[in-house]
Amino acid sequence: MRKLTWLLLAVVTFGLFSPAYVLAADNDALNITTSPLPINIFAKPGEVVKTQLRVKNSGTNTEFIKVGLMKFSAFGDDGKPRLADKVVGDDYFDWVSFSEVKFKAEPNVWKDITMTIAVPKSAAFGYYYAVTFARANPQVTNTDKSAVLLGGTATLVLLDVKSPNAHRELKLTDFQVSKKSYEFLPAKFTIKLKNVGNVHVIPTGSIYITQGSKQIEVIPVNPTKGNILPDSGRFYTADWKSGFPVYEPKVLNGATLQKNGQTDYQLSWKFNNLTNLRFGRYSAHLTMVYDDGKHDVALDANVSFWVIPWRLIGIFIGIPLAMIGTIIYLVVSRRHYKKRSKSAPTS
Predict the structure, then answer these.
(1) Measured between alpha carbons, how far is 295 from 166 in angstroms, rounded to an integer?
(2) What integer pLDDT is reported at residue 78 of this predicted model?
(3) C-alpha span between 13 and 18 (Å, rounded)
(4) Least confident of 11-20, 183-192, 272-281, 319-328
(5) Phi/psi of residue 144, nearest 5 degrees
(6) 285 phi, psi to nearest 5 deg
(7) For the residues 218-240, what does the mean pLDDT come to?
(8) CA 306 to chain centre
(9) Element containing residue 189 per DSSP (H, E)
(10) What is the fold, at CATH topology level, of the domain defined by 4-161?
(11) pLDDT tens digits, residue range 62-102?
């Protein structure tokens, strides 16, 4: 029997920035929105828990939708989820039931589906579900090794079953700034955390920018509270971009322009931000915090960098030097003229 494989094509960040996880584009443009995303559920062994899944057909035609269940794990360090089918040993699939597994979805009408999880007494730690919504009679493309299901979305559901053996621990493995010296902002920071526990964890934090003893700005890290799954790493990025002038992405007709596969930037001169002219050595102090089940644990690191606006310095120095040089030239020229006038023979 051929395995049914879902393709995750959308570039999304785990649990945060997309209204739904798109599972392979359909030429007929199935357009479904789900809410909330993601869903975190906490339960005790032996407890029955319920959660509401909201689904809306955002297209223009009536659709017949079926509800499915998959599992997910972390894919790489950028937070993208990898979806997979149930395999032998995935008994936690059997804990789940839905109020409806097929329904009619009218355009722009929200539909509530109740997901019930009967947690057995033997359960412990974390279980990670992907509740899928797809056409009841989807188009299927056959390949040599698998059947690819076209069209659909998925909502991620994270179940945390309380256990005295739960171990929540994060390690800060890297904190860097992309350059040691910038001409103009933004300064780009990367943070890498590793979950060495057995339960998913939600870290939050901030980067504090200082110059000397003065705090300049506070930049949030993971403000949308993305999870890190057990035995997984996760990269977070943050930019300090309140400068003058500052590099900003080029935008045309609402779309960000690309150059050689990367975002194309241009220098923006917004003179109402003139007070944000940056110059000198800056320090960035990172503080990340997570709950280990007993209290908040802080992770700290520091980096430093310079902002040296060479072109502006050249202008500020060059103009006065040019003026001084002009004055000197005029004075010297006047002296030479007077000397020549005095030494010139009279008729």
Answers:
(1) 14
(2) 74
(3) 8
(4) 11-20
(5) -65, -30
(6) -110, 120
(7) 94
(8) 25
(9) strand 187-195
(10) Immunoglobulin-like (2.60.40)
(11) 999 999 999 998 877 777 788 999 999 999 999 999 999 99
pLDDT value of position 263: 87
Checking 12-15 for CB contacts under 8 A at 24+ apart, the result is 12/80, 12/81, 13/78, 13/79, 13/80, 13/226, 14/38, 14/74, 14/79, 14/80, 14/81, 14/156, 14/226, 14/227, 14/234, 15/79, 15/156, 15/158, 15/224, 15/225, 15/226, 15/227
Going by CATH, does the domain composed of 170-243+278-308 fall within 3.40.50.11810? no
Contact partners, residue 11, CB within 8 Å, separation at least 6? 80
pLDDT at residue 74 in the model? 84
241 φ, ψ to 5°? -130, 15
Q: Are 99 and 25 in contact (CB under 8 A)?
A: no
Give the integer Cα–Cα distance in Å for 80 and 72: 10
Q: CB of 138 within 8 A of CB of 151?
A: yes
Instruction: Locate 344 and state its tokens.
Output: 């010139």
Dist CA 224 CA 16 (whole Å) = 6
| In the chain, ranges of CATH 2.60.40.10 domains | 4-161, 170-243+278-308
pLDDT at residue 29, rounded to an integer:
64
Q: pLDDT tier at 18 (50, 70, 90 boundaries)?
A: very low
For residue 34, pLDDT over 80 is answered with yes
Taking residues 27-41, report their average pLDDT. Answer: 80
Which secondary structure element, helix H or strand E, spans residue 310, and what is its range?
A: helix 310-343
As a whole number, the mean pLDDT across the chain is 85
Tell me which of 250-254, 283-287, 308-312 is least confident: 250-254
CA distances from 231 to 91, 194, 263, 323 (A): 21, 7, 32, 64
